[in-house]
Each structure stands twice: as structure tokens, then as C-alpha cells.
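Work package 3, deliverable 3.1, input record:
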Amino acid sequence: MAYKITDSCVACGTCIDECPVEAISAGDIYVIDADKCIECGTCAGVCPSEAIVAE
Ligand code: SF4
């Protein structure tokens, strides 16, 4: 189980610098690498669009 970025993402970039394991990649919609994610929840807490959810 990892965190996932949904279609609500507006690619603002807020989360990418907050991830301690650099699991987030930029794009039209940002993506979390489930193999790297340690499920800390930091990104979900900072996302202004509430686009990041636990799977
Ligand atoms: Fe990175 Fe933590 Fe978000 Fe996983 S939950 S992508 S480790 S900030």
C-alpha cells in the first residue's frame, strides 16, 4: 500500500520537495513511485488540492 496522486492534481509542485525518499515525479499529473513510497503521509498533508490519497 502506498500513497497515490489522483486527477485532482494541478501539478503545483508543492509535494515534490517534501517527500523524504524522492518518490514523487513531475508531469501533467504528478506520480508517486509505489516501490519507493514509505507511506509517511507527508505529501498528502501539504497538497493544496487534497489530491493525494492512501490506497
Ligand atoms: Fe513520499 Fe511520504 Fe508521500 Fe510516500 S507518503 S510519496 S514517502 S511524501
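Residues 3, 18-19, 21, 23-24, 32, 37-43 surround iron/sulfur cluster (CB under 6 Å).
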